[in-house]
Specification:
This protein has 128 residues and is mainly alpha-helical. The protein has 6 helices and 2 strands, in the order αααββααα. A hairpin with a 6-residue loop joins β1 and β2.
Length: 128
């Protein structure tokens, strides 16, 4: 698994989600169109964010085709795994049980969520 040293800000994460969801490299105009309704950005604002993402090592920019094409350098699953581990370590002492207990005791988890989690864990055990 790739070691991810930098974190994404909220807006950067939204940009990366657009890039990750695409099957192929995308243009800045494509990203801007996909973000409509979520962000009221000018192209210059997006370009600044894309430049930061490139500096952080999250995207590559291919300029050979005449228009800049952005592609992910960090896989979505690798980023989510690293962020999830960091979140769990920081807030719950690396204990999933503590996280679930906190959510459940504060009524942030419904019974249906617990049932879904139980089903998922049962399926995982069956695979082993």
């Amino acid at each position: 698994m790739a070691v991810i040293k930098k974190k994404l800000g909220e807006a950067e994460l939204e940009i990366m989600q657009v890039i990750w969801a695409s099957e192929s490299p995308v243009t800045s105009n494509y990203i801007l169109k996909e973000l409509q309704g979520r962000r009221k950005w000018q192209l210059s604002t997006l370009m600044t964010s894309l430049s930061r993402l490139a500096d952080k090592g999250f995207v590559s920019c291919d300029r050979t085709s005449g228009s800049n094409l952005y592609a992910p350098l960090v896989p979505e699953d690798a980023y989510k795994t690293a962020e999830s581990k960091s979140f769990l370590e920081r807030l719950y002492g690396n204990s999933i049980q503590n996280m679930v207990a906190t959510l459940y005791s504060n009524r942030a988890l419904k019974s249906s969520d617990v049932a879904e989690l139980r089903k998922f864990l049962d399926e995982l055990e069956e695979e082993v």
